[in-house]
Amino acid sequence: MKTPTWGEIERFCRVDGWREVRRSDHVFYQKVLPDGTVLRTHRSFAGHKTMSPGRFKAILRNQLRVSEEDFWRALETGEPVERPSAPPEAEATLPAYLARVLERELHLSQEEIAALSEEEAKRLADEHWSKPER
């Protein structure tokens, strides 16, 4: 999955008609939908950095409320997204401690971790912890 930079998140907000509401260590945006729903998001000042696929899906689902396809289309065309737009479904996520073990101790990539079920992830962690120390 291609993920955007924080600069692309900002560009999406501008294209999609979001209003900048404040700046601090992040830039905060707000958009009021025709039905009165108020959406809020923010972006990091690290405009060139990208994010993990999980974080991008969560931003699409919980903050921008658009599909991945509509997000990229808005950036390509410069046209705002027509709502409603179907954001990605929530995915089952691993407990944070388990994801940390897989990343820091087993050195798995974010993509490898995302492909594991919780049962598979626990099995890998248990196998790792059960090995004798050298």
Descriptive notes:
The chain is α+β, with helices and mostly antiparallel strands and 134 residues long. The chain has six helices and three strands; from the N terminus they run H-E-E-E-H-H-H-H-H. It has helices spanning 6-15, 53-64, 68-77, 96-105, 110-114, 118-130, and strands at residues 19-23, 26-32, 38-44. A three-stranded antiparallel β-sheet has the order 1-2-3. A hairpin with a 2-residue loop joins strand 1 and strand 2 (26-32). The longest helix has 13 residues, at 118-130. The protein starts with 5 loop residues before the first helix and ends with a helix. 21% of the residues are buried. The mean pLDDT is 89.
Task: List key phrases describing it.
134 residues; alpha+beta; Metal Transport, Frataxin, Chain A; 2 domains; 6 helices
Quick summary:
By secondary structure, this protein is of the alpha+beta class. 45% of the residues lie in helices and 14% in strands.
| Global shape | elongated
Number of domains: 2
Q: Pairing-aware structural class of the strands and helices? A: alpha+beta
Order of adjacent strands in the largest pleated sheet: 1-2-3
Name of the CATH architecture of the largest domain: 2-Layer Sandwich
- State the major sheet: 3 strands, antiparallel
Distance between the termini: 38 Å
Q: Helix content range of the residues, please?
A: 40-55%
